[in-house]
Design a protein that fits this description.
Blueprint lengths: L1 H27 L8 H25 L8 H11 L12 E6 L2 E6 L5 E3 L5 H28 L12
Antiparallel strand pairs: 1-2, 2-3
Helix pairs in contact: 1-2, 2-4
Length: 159
């Protein structure tokens, strides 16, 4: 419950950052705001971080309800039809994990339903890999600029 609340609080700035990046791209037709290679790779890492936080929050919110069995019953109804949820709530076993994000409901008779959408975990893993890749590229770009004598980035416009 606490992790769900924290992920929602972190998702709000992540969504705002993604919206700012989308508006910037639409207006300027440039994906990055920074003009240096290290800055552009850092921005790409932040975009991947935003996607990871949004995917994590979305996955955790799918199983969140004031009545814990409600998402299970909704998922069962969506997969097996409207007459499939005729079980007492006390008989439903809910298993939840945070990494990978999963909320699995087990009904009497062995029927299992996953509440988290199937695309959440691949997006989360790809975003985490993107963060690592972009961070390594940003560090390498910064080291290349630092290794060149007298180079502190590209010249300012108008030089």
């Amino acid at each position: 419950m606490i992790i769900t609340a924290i992920s929602v609080l972190l998702a709000l700035p992540a969504v705002a950052f993604a919206l700012v990046k989308a508006v910037h791209l639409a207006v300027t037709r440039r994906p990055g705001m920074s003009r240096t290679a290290a800055g552009q790779w850092s921005e790409a890492a932040m975009v991947c971080l935003s996607l990871a936080v949004i995917a994590f929050a979305w996955g955790n919110l799918r199983g969140f309800s004031s009545r814990p069995t409600r998402p299970c019953l909704d998922a069962l109804t969506a997969q097996h039809g409207p007459q499939s949820h005729r079980t007492p709530d006390a008989d439903i076993k809910i298993d939840q994990s945070y990494f990978p994000v999963s909320t699995e409901c087990t009904f009497p008779g062995g029927v299992r339903v996953e509440v988290v959408p199937i695309w959440v975990n691949p997006l989360l893993m790809a975003s985490l890999a993107g963060i690592a890749y972009c961070t390594v590229r940003a560090v390498r770009s910064r080291r290349q600029v630092s290794a060149t004598p007298g180079a502190f980035g590209p010249p300012a416009a108008g030089w």
